[in-house]
């Protein structure tokens, strides 16, 4: 039979024959590298777009006659925060990003598997316990910088002075971040990276989540919480518990401000302590429940690694071309919040 060649046989018998599986894994590695670079560029462009939207919104506000009102009004500050920061700067650009990267998703955009109220409550309790632990770690970082002669600062907003402003504070600080930030980070960004490794996606998104907060205090805290939110979202295949934890954690400071408005600063000092005691006790319950129900599992068996597969660090490096500019900007902004103690 003419023009027939045995499969995978090299035309030159002096050269070694190529292994088809080796070629497959090499091609898979090259494809993954290209996909990660493109994904990093798209995510990086989205971060830049988010920063630009915030910058434009602030510039327009400063050039308007309403800037003085903004500086004095808690209602104005919280309303601006909801619209300009969370909706326009977070939800809109990251949703558009998810449309561009929709072929990367291995699950639905908004993971919302039904896990049942008891399981959801247990995860929320467990997550709040992690938030308390993250607060102690953050306090340690603040003290460390203080010992080195530096003070860590963050944006301060006016306290509410009316019931309407208290309601606006609830939406701006507790509800809007929980919905908008979790949608942008755990749904859109983590969803686009999940196919390249669950652990990789959780850590990569947590780094971004920490940096977008723009100061060292919140970077440390948000990075740690990002790991918790990402882990819970992956394990439950639902973003709902993470949204609840996010909102309730932010709600502690909101409750303190509202109590301060209603009954004075002396009473508000006890709010955080009471909340920590309650959630600390509930977190123990949540942890025990999840262990008994085998919701938390520690897999000690190492997964077989494919030949030529990218390492964790290699995957992060593939994202760097797209991340260099936005992360550089965010790091610069974050450094500005570190001031010498005078």
Radius of gyration, taken over Cα atoms and rounded to an integer in Å: 24 Å
Number of domains: 1
Order of helices and strands: HHHHEHHHHHHE
Describe the largest sheet: 2 strands, antiparallel
| Averaged pLDDT | 91
DSSP, total strands: 2
Could you describe the 3D structure shown?
This protein is mostly helical and 342 residues long. It has one domain (23-298, 315-340). Helix content is 73%, strand content 2%. The protein contains ten helices and two strands. It has helices at residues 20-63, 67-72, 74-100, 117-147, 163-193, 198-211, 216-236, 240-263, 265-292, 312-335, and strands spanning 150-152, 338-340. It has a two-stranded antiparallel sheet. Helix 4 runs antiparallel to helix 7, helix 4 (117-147) crosses helix 8 (240-263) and helix 4 crosses helix 9. The relative contact order is 0.15.
